Amino acid sequence: MATTAPGRNVSVIWFSLLLALILMIIPLPETLRFARPEWLGMFLIYWAMALPQRVSIGVAWFVGILMDALSGTTLGVHAFAYALVVFLVARFHLQLRQYPLWQQALTILSLVLIVQLILLLASSMTHQWKVWMPAVTSTVVWPLVYALLRKTRRAFQVS
């Protein structure tokens, strides 16, 4: 079996981020809209934790600008929130990788809450309690996202 050179299959990262963008803009019923997990944030966190040399603040900023454009929010809000979260993950990625999955999930709660609070401050959202819903659902979904992206990274030998 031929081995792939380092840095190959980076397109898998971009494809997964595109998938996360699609998951973020799929219309949901009104009752589920505020419980949507922060797919894009979780995917960025995973890749920044696993391959910080490939997914950096610049990638987070670019994808955040795309998210702002697709969701119709103020330009730069998602970009700032994602860039801040990826900065924190990149700063502590060695420690985060060592955490058990349940501790990583609690870290996801904190990081997604940061994203949601930034979005809340930039908008005129009147139901502040709904800021917790994406953070909680992202925490619950994190072990599945982690397992799926880890398996994908290994299967496609993304480095």
Automatic annotation (TrEMBL):
The role this protein plays is: Involved in formation of the rod shape of the cell. May also contribute to regulation of formation of penicillin-binding proteins.
Q: Which family does it belong to?
A: Belongs to the MreD family.
| Naturally occurring in which organism (per UniProt) | Methylophaga lonarensis MPL
Record's subcellular location: Cell inner membrane; Cell membrane
Tell me a GO biological process for this protein: regulation of cell shape
Q: GO CC terms on record?
A: plasma membrane
Q: Where is this protein chiefly located?
A: membrane
* Keywords, sorted A to Z: Cell inner membrane, Cell membrane, Cell shape, Membrane, Transmembrane, Transmembrane helix
**Keyword ATP-binding (UniProt):** no
Q: Does the keyword Transcription regulation apply?
A: no
The UniProt transmembrane annotation reads: 12-28, 40-63, 75-94, 106-125, 131-149
* Pfam families with a match to the protein in the record: MreD
Name of the protein? Rod shape-determining protein MreD
Q: How does the record classify its membrane topology?
A: Multi-pass membrane protein
